[in-house]
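I'm stuck. Please check this protein.
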Amino acid sequence: MKNPAAPASFPSPPHAPSLYPELDATALTAFATALESGDLSALPPARAAEVQALRAVAVFSRGEVTGACGDLLDAALWRHTGPRPRAAVVMPSPWTGLGWTAYAVQATAFAARGYDVLAYTARGFGRSDGQADFAGPLDVADGRRALDHLLERAAGPVTGIGFLGVSYGAGIGLLTAAHDPRVDAVAALSTWGDLGAVLHENSTRRTAAVHALLRAAERARLSPETERALEDVLAGRDAGGARLWAQRRSPFGHVKEFNRRRLPVLFSHAWHETLFPANQTLRLFDELTGPKRLDLSVGDHVGPESAGLLGLPSTVWTDAHRWFDHHLRDAANGVDGEARVLSEVMWTRALEPADGLPAPGTEVRRLYLTGRGELAGEPEHGWTAGLLCGVDTPVTAADAVVRSGYAEMAGRPKSYPAGEVDAAAASSVTAAWTGPAAEATLRVRGIPRLRVTYRAANSGSTFVAYLLDLAPDGSSRLICHAPFSDLHSPPDSLVSADIDLQATAYDVPRGHRLLLVATARDPFYGDANLPRATLAFTSPEPTPSYVEVPVG
């Protein structure tokens, strides 16, 4: 590879808030340094053995890839010598100044299995030139140039090509594969399918996610178009422009190309993902007709993948290796005969295989909202439940973007203390409806759906719906949620909301109850309500209000 003009050094651990807080930047940098120098003294024994084994079978070098517009991209190459045919993997970096170094351990693992690997830092981040374009045309061109770079340096024939990425790198990988027929398989971990739904969910601005993206890119160089689109979401302006910008960067827009080529795609995602909510990726997964697999895990953005990035055991990374072994090297490892969806159930952590989500045989249980604050089997009309706007509530989507998921992975999901929800409902800060006690474990599997009618005094309105597991002691835990906004109805209108809550695999224990809560304010979202306005929920006879829960 071409030697960089700057002195050879690896990126310093980034100081900006990270979307990947569990990644040990110092350890990954030390690993990458050892790959280049051969000095193993700074590594623990397991990592030292991996470096030593890699250096015995392949050559590691770092340098630059010439990307679009002549911009130089910081990169590293794991290359085998000799004329033997090999498969190859390209790995675009996540949304971090750590760049390709985030993949140092996993790229080495692929190379040790016989792959040639190129990992590179996306434009605008770390030591790479250019401006971050959020998987725009320049990023796609960079991905194709990176593949050219790898193929030009392969010592023998390349028999199969895979793109693998985490988060931002996964989005770039999918979009590159859509534009480059040379790509034979993709592993897209914690990615997006529809970027528009990441920015606006049910017409509601996902402001906390956008703030997190901008904070994590404080030391990056964003393109003016990217910066403007993200800031427009925060300011609540030019929603049409933001949607068009996002559409051009959405793998969902390329479903026909993926299906024409029957491109094998492996996805992984977290149930309580706060950055890229799961439903928009599930929508892409459902539309694909080629070989596909989806691993769904407890946690939040990149939480399930972080352990593997550091070299620790990981179901997701094991599946990624097996996926490429089968689709790029024709390994008869059984991947093609396995269930398409593997769900980690909250909170037993059991791994549950199925051919879809929801699994075949799942029934939908409809529970009607009543004026008595109950979820009942029969509709009730003529009631009103007021909801006060502009007031903080005890129920929120999570305590923090990304980080809340690590507590869940450690077995400490957020619990809403007994009495807080009741007190908030009594003062109209929340509206709440409680179902009957479960006679046996209630296996919620799939996407709960809510239909509700409310009257809004003003022309703009927002509410957030949460489905909770209410324990006998009065405490509750989040199963799933979703926001909804109406931006166009005239004042004092009846608004009908039909929304999908985020997908879930949740076991409600015997004796626990389903609890549906609505709030008009959540710090994760930009709301359209006026302060101290009121939303009045009701249930008209022609269109009763209800929640549908898929039960396995």
Q: What stands out?
A: Confidence is low (pLDDT under 50) at residues 2-8. Residues 137-153 form the longest helix (17 residues). Residues 25-338 form a domain with the Rossmann fold fold (CATH 3.40.50.1820). The longest strand covers residues 476-486.
